């Protein structure tokens, strides 16, 4: 089982590394967001008594990079359908769940790479880690977020057949997830309905975990964040595996 996982993981890594425009854009986009919002809204946030906005914003933008970088991994499933590679993979004498896990870990790895690159970039914008000792915990949260949403992207890719429709539908799903995650603004003082939706959002716990491990400020607690992410990941893994098993060869 480990062999197919490693092969699918390496395939995703090679595809990402060979596409230089994709590699550059995946790093440049969150950097632009961080600079524009950090410098643009930072003074307003500080005047409102919110403190240093760059310190607050950086974990949120990191979560955004991981979200977008991992969930769009699902579009490769659609292209694999179009070119026949998925059919060849599914008829191979290996468990389908190993193909699913390898594909998901590959997408998560490329997303984590984007996050790791963004960390030193944020330093030049003014962000400071609370402690370097928490870097392993930060990377753990990066991987949990990326693996979770890579599974979400694959699940949607398994149900769709039109590669051109995938970005439209996935954006319809992940834009609300992003804005209701507390990435750009605190969720504590929002209306009750919005706060409830934010607490049902798995990315909220990912961003909170990143913020807690990067700045020492956490609303839910690190242990709670990890627990929720693991539970949702397991649920999505079961759903994704079911959809993968239903794919026709």
Automatic annotation (TrEMBL):
<keyword id="KW-1133">Transmembrane helix</keyword>
<dbReference type="InterPro" id="IPR047817">
    <property type="entry name" value="ABC2_TM_bact-type"/>
</dbReference>
<keyword id="KW-0472">Membrane</keyword>
<dbReference type="InterPro" id="IPR051784">
    <property type="entry name" value="Nod_factor_ABC_transporter"/>
</dbReference>
<keyword id="KW-0812">Transmembrane</keyword>
<dbReference type="InterPro" id="IPR000412">
    <property type="entry name" value="ABC_2_transport"/>
</dbReference>
<feature type="transmembrane region" description="Helical">
    <location>
        <begin position="166"/>
        <end position="187"/>
    </location>
</feature>
<dbReference type="Pfam" id="PF01061">
    <property type="entry name" value="ABC2_membrane"/>
</dbReference>
<feature type="transmembrane region" description="Helical">
    <location>
        <begin position="100"/>
        <end position="125"/>
    </location>
</feature>
<feature type="transmembrane region" description="Helical">
    <location>
        <begin position="21"/>
        <end position="41"/>
    </location>
</feature>
<feature type="transmembrane region" description="Helical">
    <location>
        <begin position="131"/>
        <end position="154"/>
    </location>
</feature>
<feature type="transmembrane region" description="Helical">
    <location>
        <begin position="220"/>
        <end position="244"/>
    </location>
</feature>
<dbReference type="GO" id="GO:0043190">
    <property type="term" value="C:ATP-binding cassette (ABC) transporter complex"/>
</dbReference>
<dbReference type="InterPro" id="IPR013525">
    <property type="entry name" value="ABC2_TM"/>
</dbReference>
<feature type="domain" description="ABC transmembrane type-2">
    <location>
        <begin position="21"/>
        <end position="247"/>
    </location>
</feature>
<protein>
    <submittedName>
        <fullName>ABC-2 type transporter</fullName>
    </submittedName>
</protein>
<feature type="transmembrane region" description="Helical">
    <location>
        <begin position="61"/>
        <end position="79"/>
    </location>
</feature>
<dbReference type="GO" id="GO:0140359">
    <property type="term" value="F:ABC-type transporter activity"/>
</dbReference>
């Amino acid at each position: 089982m480990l062999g197919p996982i490693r092969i699918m993981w390496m395939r995703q890594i090679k595809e990402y590394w060979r596409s230089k425009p994709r590699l550059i854009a995946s790093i440049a986009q969150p950097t632009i967001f961080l600079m524009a919002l950090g410098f643009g809204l930072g003074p307003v946030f500080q005047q409102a008594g919110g403190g240093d906005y760059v310190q607050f914003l950086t974990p949120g933008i990191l979560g955004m990079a991981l979200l977008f970088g991992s969930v769009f991994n699902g579009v490769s499933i659609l292209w694999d359908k179009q070119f026949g590679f998925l059919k060849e993979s599914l008829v191979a004498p290996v468990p389908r769940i190993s193909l699913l896990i390898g594909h998901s870990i590959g997408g998560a790895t490329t997303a984590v790479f984007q996050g790791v690159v963004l960390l030193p970039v944020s330093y030049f914008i003014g962000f400071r880690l609370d402690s370097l000792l928490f870097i392993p915990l930060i990377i753990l949260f990066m991987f949990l977020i990326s693996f979770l949403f890579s599974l979400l992207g694959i699940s949607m890719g398994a149900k769709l057949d039109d590669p051109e429709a995938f970005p439209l539908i996935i954006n319809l799903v992940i834009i609300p997830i992003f804005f209701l995650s507390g990435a750009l603004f605190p969720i504590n003082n929002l209306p009750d309905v919005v706060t409830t939706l934010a607490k049902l959002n798995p990315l909220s716990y990912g961003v909170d975990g990143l913020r807690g491990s990067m700045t020492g400020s956490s609303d839910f607690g690190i242990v709670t964040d990890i627990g929720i992410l693991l539970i949702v990941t397991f649920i999505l893994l079961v759903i994704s595996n079911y959809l993968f098993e239903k794919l026709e060869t």
